[in-house]
Each structure stands twice: as structure tokens, then as C-alpha cells.
Amino acid sequence: MKKKLTIIPTQERHDQSIQAKTVCLRVAAYCRVSTVYERQENSYDAQVACYMDKIANNPDWVLAGIYSDNGRSATNTKKRDDFNALIDDCAAGKIDLVITKSVSRFARNTVDSLLFIRKLKEMNIGVIFEKEGINTLESTGELLITVLSGQAQEESRNISENTRWGIVRQFEKGVFHVNYKKFMGYTMDENGQLIIVPEEAEIVRMIFQLYMEGRSYIQICQALENSGIKTVTGNSKWRDSTLIKMLSNEKYMGDALLQKTYTINFLTKKRVVNKGIVPQYYVKNNHEAIIPADLFQSVQDEKLRRINMSCGESALKQKYSALYAISNIMICGECGYPYRRVTRARRGKSKVVWRCKNRLMNGNRFCTNSPTLDEGTLHKMIAAAINRNAKAKAIKDYFLPANQYDDRLSRVLIERIKVKQDGKLRITFKK
């Protein structure tokens, strides 16, 4: 018998209680201008007003919101708050369609542009670029977007290079700008020149003087905090990193070194220290000095001396480094100097302890509260920390039975040991 196939069609059902109605698209507009120099018809306010009228006058659209970032660069989307809010609201199902002026208004980074367009497309949300006449939900949309986004990214590269060119030309003339609001000791007059703030200058002089008296960064921070002196930003807590920058800043002796850092990627804006890769410019006697040149140089010499002492350029330090794993990695929490192994002899008996090298060589004037650690107790503390770390990471090979110290294992696992004033240890393990 011959096989016979019959297709049974579906039966159409009509619910008379449901009336057909037109569903309006929830449309959001995104506006952005990156500078105050754009012409009025392309300005931020004009974009916002234009889109409010456009959406209101379309019977098939209903306003879902105006999202706008005024004065934000498009090379990276991380700093554009409203753009990110727009994407979040799309993901939350609050928006059906996005309209914006052009590809360059949306994103000048090809990667970001395609990432967000595809992300919205997966949610069946289109983006209309008015200038280019593109709807991303149409078949030709993504190809055109790829080409146009690439052009926009190249435009951003050119803008970045032109801006950098202008800054370098200013450097060549000895012209530069300082964020004086974060520069202790100086402000700026109406002509853009650095001028001294007397009360702040006294704090700067105090810091330089304390350092030359032999105080550590931590001790200087404590002295400033105990005196109720705040940082230039109004913070009552001082950090050693702040002091390091201040004591190295040539502007305090009236000079200026320009282009200490440079941008290596115009998209990420990442800056790195200039180690001779691009030219630098040194401006002598640019403004009134707070610190005399001879004192500033003395501070630099003292910094180098301390670094040499603490970082092991002496043969004695190298000798200790070879013998004991913790010699170079255990530092004083008060002054930052390394700890040294010392053998004490009392009543015919010897005892091995670890002491701060700064206090050992220079006395408690330079390091007041660093504790002396018994080697046996120290080893047990380190072994216990290694076991806790091994247990947390489920590494059986690194477990020390009965907290028995292992110098070889300490050398392999531990990156830094910081000795607190109460004798406790803060141990940082290698990753």
C-alpha cells in the first residue's frame, strides 16, 4: 500500500475580547559632545532638544529616555555614565530602539562600538545612526558599522596625535600646566604662573628638614598627623607615597622637568614613566623656589644612601642574603629597613634574634618602636603562616608538620614579611 501524507492545518481562533492595538516602540536617544568648541547646532543642548521633538512627533514611538554625556571623550566607554546606564536599561527590557546622531557620537573605538551594537542586537534592539542612515538590525548594518567605526577610531588617533603635538610644542617653549589644587606649597595667579602659598610652603620645608634629620617616611607621616597638619587635598592621613613624590619633585627648587610620563595607547589613555623613550624638557628657574637647590640635592643624596643601605649593595648584606631566606624580605613596619640576624651572648649563653637594621646601626633615634624577635618564635610564626596558606589553597606538598620551619620553603613561597610594632607579622606570599 502506498504511503500517503496529509497535512492538517492549524485552526485559527479569535478571542473577541482582545482588540488589536498598535504597540509603540520605546525609543531612547543618546547624545554626546566631547568639547565646548562645537558649533551651536551640533551642541549638547541642541541634540537633546532635537531628539525630544523627534520622538514626540513620531506616533509609533514613545520616549524611553534621553541619555547624555556632556564633555566626555568617546575613545573609551568606561567614563561615560549615561552611556552605561543606557546599556543597562536596554538589558533590563526598558528600551526597544536607540537613536543617536552618528557613529562617532556613539563610540570611536571599533571594539567598543561593535561589542555594544552586537550586544543590543542579541536583545533585538536596534541602533539608528542618523547621519549615516544605518539601522543595525538591517542586514547591511554591521558591515557598514565596521567600516565607519574603523574610520572613527582613526579620527580619534589623529586627534590624539594632534593634541600631543600641541603639548610638545608648548614644552619646547617651556610652557606647561600644573594641577595646583593637588600641589602642596603653590597656587596659580591670573597669568598662569606658580606662586607660593606661605602656610603650605612651611609644611614643605618641615618635611624636607625632618627627612634630613634622619626621620623615616613613616615617622614624618606620624609627626604631621600628630601636629594636625592635613594634606593638600584636606586628608588628615598622610601616606609615605605622598612624601616620596614631594621629596623628589624638582618644582620645589623652582625648576620643572617636563614629560616625565607619556601616553602609550590613545584608546586606553595608559601612561607610563618616560625612561628616555620620548624627549624631556628641563626648565631652570621657572618659578620661585621653596627649597634651596643645595638642600634639595642633599635630600636626593640621602635618599640614595638609604636605598643603598636597605637594598643590599654592601657585601655584608649580600652575605646575609645567601645564608638566610628571610634576610632580604623581612622589613621593619616603622622605618622600612630590613631585619638582620644577630647573635647575643649573655652569661655564657648565646641567643639568636632578629632586629631592625636601622635601629641596630643608628639607635632608637631613627627607629623607636621596632621589636626584637626571638628566632625560634619567629620561625614558628612563619611556619604557621605557611601552613595556613597551604590549607587555604589545598597544597599538601607545602604543609609543615608540627609547624617546623623550613628555610628553603620560605625562600620559595614568601615574597615579603612586614614586622609590626606589636611583634606580629604581615606575610605576603608569592602568587
Automatic annotation (TrEMBL):
Q: Which PROSITE patterns match?
A: RECOMBINASE_DNA_BIND, RECOMBINASES_3
The protein, known as: Resolvase domain protein
Please state every residue range assigned to the domain named Recombinase. 183-310
Pfam families, alphabetically?
Recombinase, Resolvase, Zn_ribbon_recom
Any idea which GO molecular function terms this record carries?
Answer: DNA binding; DNA strand exchange activity
Q: Where is the Resolvase/invertase-type recombinase catalytic domain?
A: 26-174
Tell me the SMART domains matching this sequence: Resolvase
